[in-house]
Specification:
The chain has nine helices and nine strands. The strands form two sheets. Strands 1, 2, 3, 4 and 5 form a five-stranded antiparallel β-sheet that branches. The protein is globular. Helix 2 crosses helix 3 and helix 6 packs antiparallel against helix 7. About 40% of the residues lie in helices and about 25% in strands. The relative contact order is 0.17. A hairpin with a 4-residue loop joins strand 4 and strand 5. It is an alpha+beta fold. Bound molecules: (R)-mevalonate (MEV). The site of (R)-mevalonate has 14 residues, from helix 4 and helix 5.
Length: about 290
């Protein structure tokens, strides 16, 4: 019998990199995700040829005999939308189904850490925590502190830089420049707190929120994780009328997000400079949290 596990991808609204140093992050699930199928065979474990780190991660948790792994995804891979974490959690859900138990969050979080460590060396845990919880999250790695976080309806334009970032290398690069970059990480921590306060207001001030997101991008630039293309996407979106924009995820490629009122003119401007984009809306009703 084939066993399947699913997990959604994520967006980081704020806190990438600084979350590794104990500052908070605000993360949202997206309606794109990954399904992992464990198909029975009578042969040693067969893996799709995607990435050697993923193969190592799969071999660390899956039985060495009797399954073929197949994945289906509509989530862009390696673009800062949590694809490795979604693959990890979807694999664990399929494995739990094969073993005949319902996975708890604690099990997914602990095992997810082991898998994510194969990818990133030193993950904060925010990505796979979000994929396992499947709801907007305020996350601090110490504790860890994981709180469902009510996000009002936000319209976000997701802009694809066309290249992939390597999260492990980017996190290691920030570590290599630590503690000289500590004040930048502190500033991103402060911005995340202020973004959190702004989102909690009964009628969040979108202009202020946009400005905070853009300030966050400028700090990520200073941290050395942006690219000329990400900067170009952010500037183009703001010039075309976005409230604010920032890279999202580890950087070094991947995606940037823009907070918009009406996405059309901004999407036109992004497509005119040759990049793909799509719009998403966040949906978490505050009163449900
Ligand atoms: C990657 O989505 C987020 C980073 O902060 C790494 C992590 O938190 O493990 C760059």
């Amino acid at each position: 019998m084939t066993h399947v596990g699913y997990a959604p991808g994520k967006l980081l609204l704020s806190g990438e990199h600084s979350v590794v140093y104990g500052h908070p992050a605000i993360a949202l699930p997206v309606s794109l995700g990954v399904s992992v199928y464990l198909e029975p065979t009578d042969r040693p474990l067969e893996l799709p040829n995607i990435d050697p780190r993923l193969s190592a991660a799969w071999r660390s948790v899956l039985p060495s005999f009797g399954y073929r792994v197949r994945i289906e995804t509509n989530l862009p891979i390696g673009k800062g939308m949590g694809s490795s974490a979604a693959l990890s959690i979807a694999t664990l859900r399929a494995l739990a189904s094969a073993k005949g138990f319902t996975p708890t969050f604690a099990w997914l979080y602990e095992k997810g850490f082991e898998i994510e460590t194969h990818f990133h060396g030193n993950p904060s845990g925010v990505d796979h925590a979000l994929c396992a919880m499947e709801q907007s999250l305020w996350y601090e790695k110490d504790g860890p502190k994981l709180e469902p976080f009510g996000i009002p309806t936000l319209r976000l334009l997701i802009m694809d830089s066309g290249t992939k970032g390597n999260t492990g290398e980017l996190v290691a690069g920030v570590r290599a420049r630590h503690p000289q970059n500590e004040s930048i990480l502190d500033k991103i921590g402060d911005l995340t707190q202020e973004i959190g306060h702004t989102l909690k207001a009964p009628h969040p001030d979108m202009k202020h929120l946009g400005s905070l997101l853009h300030q966050n991008h400028i700090q990520l630039q200073a941290l050395g994780v942006s690219t000329p293309t990400l900067d170009h996407l952010v500037d183009t979106a703001i010039k075309a009328g976005a409230y604010g924009a920032k890279l999202s995820g580890a950087g070094g490629g991947g995606i940037a997000l823009a907070l918009v009122e009406n996405s059309e003119p901004i999407a036109d401007a992004i497509q005119k400079i040759g990049y793909d984009c799509f719009t998403i809306e966040t949906h978490t009703p505050k009163e449900s949290l």
